[in-house]
């Protein structure tokens, strides 16, 4: 069904089809799983789930082959917002892998190094670092050009969790005011918002140094162009280039926005439609949370091989991270979840003896049944888990722990142990493992 919808939306006639005709065509391609739940492949090239209350939610579909094979076609009424427009289906998802395990390619790091070397010696009087989060990261004498390269790397990263020995981080070491958060193995870096990045350019323009501001914007575009070679950077890097390129040929474009203070909003309006999903966190933190949680469920697809339900496992792992920071966050998360995920999150947090607690890390290690089968799967799970943690913290107004979330930290241990040493023995008796759990929560669709 997914292939059918993709082919239909890719047809050049799709955008010319009346809205009702497009909605009817998508509605006829819904599916019902054996438990009676309806699923639909629609906007943003993703699946949606129909709750009993008639609400559609972005939701990764069941992964078990037996469940997928038992679906049947149905026709259901659908809201306009789940109908793909065309450009949204051409979205580039890139890779959810973190920068732990697979290193950033050498050709990317060397070209980033060249940009730093070419811009590090510029006069700080011309490129001052006056405020914002970058002022807390870098030493007082560092020019904003270096911060611009750093900010672009961080903004373009799907999930800014980096190996402590990653070359692309090491080259910034001499400019830092203090050590980066994390430990010797993983640096759990905070996200950089588009407003933080844009303010570097806007400050120079407002100070009357318009040429310097444009030079910073060009440096962002050049850095993003280098980063596009790595799929973990590519979607956001392409979106950033799409926002900046018109400015470089028409330097007056942001004149009104600079006066009103809406520069970041103006940049977002210039983002190409097929790349808009990459900047979703800047527009709707709730929808961004939905999408990265979807990525988390997909990253856990390997658990279906043991008979577990990746959706329930993802809800349990989310609960582990929420419990480590603040359970008050669930008030902000529930409205953005489908009924099944919401109930699984609730019971996992409310009942210490619930079988889904068996998915939680113990002594910094994942249960045996949740250990990823290979390094690339582990890197994808680490990235999706960390991105989900940052997303729900942003949505709930919580502060991400500088030492990382329990789940992403445990996945990081899988990669570190595989690389450097043998897994350490647990110091306490683990709770029930996922493979020992027979609850319907874990094995249902």
Structural class: mainly alpha
Principal-axes geometry comes out as globular
Count of DSSP strands: 7
Q: How many alpha or pi helices?
A: 20
Mean pLDDT: 91
- Strand proportion, as a percent range, falls in 5-15%
Sheet with the most strands? 5 strands, antiparallel
Name the poorly predicted regions: 420-445
In angstroms, what is the radius of gyration? 23 Å
Helix content: 40-55%
Output the strand order for the largest sheet.
Answer: 4-3-2-1-5
Order of helices and strands: HHEEEEHEHHHEHEHHHHHHHHHHHHH
Q: What is the CA–CA distance across the termini?
A: 18 Å
Model description:
The protein has 445 residues and is mainly α. Helix content is 47%, strand content 6%. It contains 20 helices and seven strands. It has helices at residues 2-10, 19-27, 65-69, 106-119, 133-137, 144-156, 167-170, 194-206, 210-227, 234-249, 255-260, 263-269, 280-283, 285-299, 310-325, 330-333, 339-350, 375-396, 406-420, 440-443, and strands spanning 30-32, 38-42, 46-50, 56-58, 72-74, 161-163, 186-188. The strands form two sheets. It has a five-stranded antiparallel beta sheet with strand order 4-3-2-1-5. The protein has a two-stranded antiparallel sheet with strand order 6-7. Strand 2 (38-42) and strand 3 (46-50) form a beta hairpin. Helix 14 (285-299) crosses helix 15. The protein is globular. Mean pLDDT is 91; it is low at 420-445.
């Amino acid at each position: 069904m997914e292939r059918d919808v993709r082919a239909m939306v890719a047809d050049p006639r799709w955008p010319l089809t009346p809205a009702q005709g497009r909605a009817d065509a998508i509605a006829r391609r819904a599916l019902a799983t054996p438990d009676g739940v309806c699923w639909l492949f629609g906007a943003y090239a993703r699946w949606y789930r129909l709750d009993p209350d008639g609400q559609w939610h972005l939701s990764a579909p069941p992964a078990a082959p037996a469940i997928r094979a038992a679906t049947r076609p149905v026709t259901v009424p659908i809201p306009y917002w789940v109908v793909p427009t065309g450009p949204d289906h051409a979205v580039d998802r890139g890779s959810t892998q973190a920068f732990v395990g697979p290193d950033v390619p050498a050709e990317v790091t060397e070209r980033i190094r060249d940009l730093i070397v070419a811009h590090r010696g510029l006069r700080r009087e011309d490129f001052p670092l006056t405020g914002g989060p970058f002022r807390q990261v870098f030493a007082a004498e560092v020019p904003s050009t270096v911060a611009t390269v750093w900010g672009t790397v961080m903004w373009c990263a799907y999930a800014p969790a980096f190996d402590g020995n990653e070359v692309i981080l090491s080259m910034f070491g001499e400019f830092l005011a203090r050590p980066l958060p994390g430990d010797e193995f993983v640096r759990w870096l905070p996200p950089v918002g588009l407003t933080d990045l844009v303010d570097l350019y806007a400050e120079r323009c407002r100070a009357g140094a318009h040429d310097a501001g444009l030079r910073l914007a060009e440096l962002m575009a050049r850095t993003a162009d280098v980063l596009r070679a790595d799929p973990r950077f590519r979607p956001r890097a392409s979106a950033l280039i799409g926002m900046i390129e018109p400015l470089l040929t028409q330097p007056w474009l942001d004149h009104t926005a600079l006066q009103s203070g809406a520069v970041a909003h103006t940049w977002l309006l210039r983002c190409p439609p097929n790349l808009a999903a990459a900047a979703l966190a800047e527009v709707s933190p709730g929808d961004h949370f939905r999408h990265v949680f979807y990525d988390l469920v997909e990253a856990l697809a390997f658990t279906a091989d043991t008979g577990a339900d990746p959706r329930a496992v993802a809800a349990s792992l989310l609960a582990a991270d929420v419990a480590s920071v603040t359970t008050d966050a669930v008030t902000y998360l529930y409205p953005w979840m489908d009924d099944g995920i919401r109930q699984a999150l609730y019971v996992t947090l409310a009942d210490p003896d619930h079988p889904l607690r068996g998915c939680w890390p113990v002594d910094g290690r994942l249960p045996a049944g949740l250990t990823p089968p290979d390094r690339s799967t582990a890197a994808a799970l680490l990235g999706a888990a960390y991105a989900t943690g940052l997303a729900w913290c942003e949505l709930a107004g919580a502060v991400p722990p500088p030492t990382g979330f329990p789940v992403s930290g445990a996945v990081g241990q899988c990669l570190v142990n595989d690389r450097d040493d043998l897994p350490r023995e647990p110091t306490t008796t683990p709770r029930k493992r996922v493979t020992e759990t027979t609850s319907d929560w874990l094995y249902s669709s």
